[in-house]
Predict the 3D structure of the following.
Amino acid sequence: MVQNNPVTCAHRPAYQPKTRLHAQRPDVPHHFKARSAIRGVSTHRDRRLSLRPRLRWSYASIHMDAGHWRRIVGEFTAGRLAAEMNQIAARVELQAQLFPQGIPRLWCPAVTHFSSPHTPDASRIAAHLNWLAPGVLGLLVPGSTGEGWQMTDAEIQRVLSIVLDIAEPLGMKVLAGVLKPELPETLRCLDSLGGLLDHPACVGITICPIRGAGHSQTKLRDSLATVLAQGFPTAIYQLPQVTQNELSGETIASLAAEFSNFILFKDTSGEDRVALGSQDLCKVFLVRGSEQNGYARWLRPAGGPYDGFLLSSANALARQLSDMIGLLDRGEDIAAESLSACISRVVQGAFGLVAPLSMGNPFANANKLLDHCMAHGRTADRQPPPMLISGECLPSSLLGPAMSLLQAEGWLPEHGYCDRR
């Protein structure tokens, strides 16, 4: 179990890491003997005589064998059930230590603001996080929206160090994004983060499966298990738009059954097969990352399968998303669904604006546009447009249409959060 400091990532859950689900486990009964030891079965030592076992059947031996196997199955099932209960208890305890006020139900993969190519703008990041803090208490940094896939290990360290120091006094919890296409790169990046994972605001890491459309579920699982075996509290991120593959419910369930430090699962696929499946995920916290098919109906208070959201749209619409969750908690489903529809119109409109762009990625581009409008209000189209990690700026011609999307819902402020500083 994690001890002492409840928000220190360096502590490890109290379990013995295993790289294979079928590795030797203490809960497996020791009744599985060689064939020759099973009652009623004898085998020829001389393979020249026969390759098939000689069976000496009687009613009594059949009856006794059936009873014997019933006991074996019963003990094995009880052992597995006890092991799963232990894993659930360990996971729940770890989650409670990391999140004493409960796991936030609204997370934001924060955009990264740049002052020049590959150089984070610390003051602009601070303004954004201070504005987000009333509605968002969980951050993923850097995620896809934060252009984490394009960052070197040193750049990830830099933006994390900025965000962690800002997040701590705001009461925000941060999952460190370790988004790499291959396992060796993931492990190298994880090792490079060093003391940053001990920061009081850091509650763990976020990883994706290795990239590649041809990988089997076994290979995807084994690569994730290797990272989970490092012992850090870990969120797994389903992102087929980038990884070109999709984890099955069975794969996620098997990882949940083995690793109590697997605390959160994010699905951005838009298919929601894991959350909608029948597998027992052993209290892994489920968050939806897709911006498709609405919002309100996916949360548990509305009868949905998810515990919360981790949404790129929270960069600009945190207050609206938080209000929607509050409406659901109060049982005001109709009002929540109406607000959900408004959010969808703005978000889908923004993604439509950036769809023709060849620069950046749609998650970053759409939300940098909306965030820019919230930062500068009615003067947004007179400010320099947002910069991407490459140093390219989004076309200024998109600022007016983005403002119109927010204006249509009455959400474009007179003065943006940057202008009020």
User: Anything to note?
Assistant: The chain is about 40% helix and 10% strand. The first helix runs from residue 59 to 98.
